[in-house]
Amino acid sequence: MSTVRDIAKQTGVSIATVSRVLNNHPSVSPEVREKVMAAANARRYTANVGKRDTAIIAYVYTGESSLGSPFDTALLEGVYDALTDSNYNLMVVDLRRSRRNNESCSQMFQRLGVRGAVLRTTLGSKTICQEVAGQRFPAVVIGDRHDDIPLPCIFSESRSASKEAVNHLISLGHRRIAISINIVEDSDHSDRLAGYHDAMTEHGLKTDERLMLRVPANRQGGEQLVRRLITAVDRPTAIYITDPMAAVGAMYEAYKLGLNIPGDLSVVGFDDTDFRYSVLPAMTSVCQNAVSLGTEAYRVLSHRITDDKPTSSHSPAAWIEIHNSTGSVPK
Amino acid sequence: MSTVRDIAKQTGVSIATVSRVLNNHPSVSPEVREKVMAAANARRYTANVGKRDTAIIAYVYTGESSLGSPFDTALLEGVYDALTDSNYNLMVVDLRRSRRNNESCSQMFQRLGVRGAVLRTTLGSKTICQEVAGQRFPAVVIGDRHDDIPLPCIFSESRSASKEAVNHLISLGHRRIAISINIVEDSDHSDRLAGYHDAMTEHGLKTDERLMLRVPANRQGGEQLVRRLITAVDRPTAIYITDPMAAVGAMYEAYKLGLNIPGDLSVVGFDDTDFRYSVLPAMTSVCQNAVSLGTEAYRVLSHRITDDKPTSSHSPAAWIEIHNSTGSVPK
DNA sequence: CTGAAAGCGCTTACAG
DNA sequence: CTGAAAGCGCTTACAG
User: Fold this and answer.
1) Is any Cβ of chain A less than 8 angstroms from the Cβ of B319?
2) How many Cα atoms are found within 13 Å in the side-chain-facing hemisphere of B194?
3) Considering the domain A159-289 in this protein, what is its CATH number?
4) pTM recorded for the entire structure
């Protein structure tokens, strides 16, 4: 358990200066500030009240919070479950809201007693990830992928399973296969799109603009999707819907409008948890287990905190489950 | 901001003794212990590190944790949303796991820097609620009702909406109306059962044992339910399924087995969030808004923390939404 | 079971 | 921008 005295000794400054850095007092030179903060993070310093020390893992929204979404719920559940065997408590942190003026990320974590962070990133989070990584604060990214940032990223590799799913549709005789992707592109959706392209080009199939449909990743998006498809000229015979809620919404709307699945349209959906079982017909899906992503994120993070050997961060691959929502292309 | 010195002065003991109480040292007389702890809670004491103070609201599982369930997810989302405009951070606490040997609830909260607790209770939680209430720690109960404990309870009053739902079925001509309830009875499910009985007896309808079906409050429970009903002699013509997941599972299984809803069986379900829109046909439901329960819980709790006037804890009532899953009794 | 006092970790007004 | 020193809140070994 490091104290301000340890850090002062190591960095060659007074304990007063260490304290100033930790509390973000303006009157410290940038070089000293950086040196001290790095040393504090490297030693896993947290403020010691009496003999107590806080043991908190934070689930951190770096951008828009999406707590309550099925994906987030599952991730959070996974992290929480994994924590059960530890002494850590779980805190949900909204970075943009919790951070004070000019406070760095690790200063904020220090202030809150956080020992390690599971970062839930969005498109604009790159700067923040770089900051955290640069400050050597123990952290992992969950449900997203940043190739250019030295943080472990825990996500499901869904490109090859997506390719496999589209291959399956092709093997059933489909040629005009559409894909629906989220209007805001993230690494996950890009992977799924890439898998689709892999399969299509490998079989010499054209992928024109009209086969790529962008809808919001929610139930309404799926409903929209079906209404668009139903009136389309030269309608595709199959579609890969890359988001769980959109897929469920699409199935629902198809039934409401009397579009027969898979008779009129073969569907492959995407599933984080068990939504594929709550629609009819049971939905062929590319699946990932979001709960296990949470568990894995904590496993990797705990190694980071204790500086154990960097156990290979095994990102579990997505897989495909075939159900009744896909069929052969109608003659 | 109280210090150990303030509490010592007020209670007429030394600061050493105050510290011992807060840290649960065994060598303090029960009377002193109680007096000091009560004073600490009354003054909203939290340990002050330097000039810092922690500001944490805890979402507390007093029994089995159910993080990840749709209901919990919605409650948590509601609490978290409400926190957005405050300075509080949210911590998820598993009481049975986080509590140390012989530690009282408020001692644990002190240790963690928690200022107020949203208690998620189960059947066996009564003792704990009494302890928290007795220790005067700011807390509210969410999603449950305990008539004999002096804590605000935030839940949806679902008895009258349940009665209304059953009345609706009766007005459609149904006479043999079944109800499905959770195998473990909690206050919510009891209310719904009471509403059912209210309607039935008011119309002079008998409610025999075979009309009361107990299944687990999950998807599998709903599937079970339908398989039981389909083979039943003297099958009911309508059923009120008092749990969201069981209701969804039942709708799914009915369709799989070719049981026509509402042709063969009228269904009224229950919904916390928006599950009623993801089954076919759209499900008539008794509804509660679990997110708003979370928001309301924080509102009441924040008043408790600051000792504002006890704003009436307005527990929002459940309501009924009529969709296609109910119809007239077949001739 | 309790208090006076020493001591720890941290912060900050003061001086340069 | 920095350090020496005073001081705050808390804990605990010691003594009774």
Assistant:
1) no
2) 11
3) 3.40.50.2300
4) 0.88
